[in-house]
């Protein structure tokens, strides 16, 4: 059973741009118990629209009978700033006005998300994190944290992520924000503002999460006579509506901006110099069909993080493969952890599956 907690920070939280969030609240889920040595902590950084209940969205890797299970590990996942799942976000009440922030919420970066994790770890009195893991935007957070506090993170697992968000990724995010802002209700200061735009934004995002081959097979038409109402069209509509029911346009807009901001080299001389700061034993996992975070971005990480291991997963699912191919990913991580924990040289894993 997971436990849901909320940490209330009683001091101003300063963002990278100098702006302040007053009375920051951080929602987080925990599973299992911390052992006496505090050496069984697994900290998960979640992706763009996920939440802190990692057992819900990363099944097969996390669960009672999975590689990361509460019988052996203390597992924690904190909801990020800007996300509508319990942590302070644009629809939270601004105490200065008594109304939701909406678009007056201060803009934040991936580095700010990592700083909030550090704050929570301090509160929980965790001097070290045994394993820090994240994929996509979660990987960006894990990387920033490992650079900011290299002595705190012992083992680092990065999946389908990058050291600096690419022009390609930024272009996808900007197209989604254009869709959101084209919905005039986004500026109407209503909690459901921008919903139609958010539906379209999600449809755009899906094209970057999957591949031509994914759609060609999963949305293939059986009838040769159809000229409208295609499966692919229904799928895009369904997925857009599904997100609208569980998310909001304001959080999506801000979090996509945060992803664009990701650049570990900012104010650190260079990206390479920043990656050299990481001291954790690191495994970098790429998805061979990932269009949004191509394998070359993961190879770059492995090249510049000292002693990092690299493995590439064959997947039909594109970027979403890091959430779907949990059996193969668990196998790769299990081998890596066994080698690291036995103090042997980590052997390059090459391709799996």
From TrEMBL:
Name of the protein in question: Homoserine O-acetyltransferase
Reactions that this protein is recorded to catalyse: L-homoserine + acetyl-CoA = O-acetyl-L-homoserine + CoA
Lineage of origin: Bacteria, Pseudomonadati, Bacteroidota, Sphingobacteriia, Sphingobacteriales
Pfam families with a match to the protein in the record: Abhydrolase_1
InterPro entries for this protein: AB_hydrolase_1, AB_hydrolase_fold, HAT_MetX-like
Gene, per the UniProt record: metX
Any one of the GO CC terms: cytoplasm
Function as written in the Swiss-Prot or TrEMBL entry: Transfers an acetyl group from acetyl-CoA to L-homoserine, forming acetyl-L-homoserine.
AB hydrolase-1 domain span: 42-323
EC number(s) from the headed UniProt entry: 2.3.1.31
UniProt keyword annotations, A-Z: Acyltransferase, Amino-acid biosynthesis, Cytoplasm, Methionine biosynthesis, Transferase
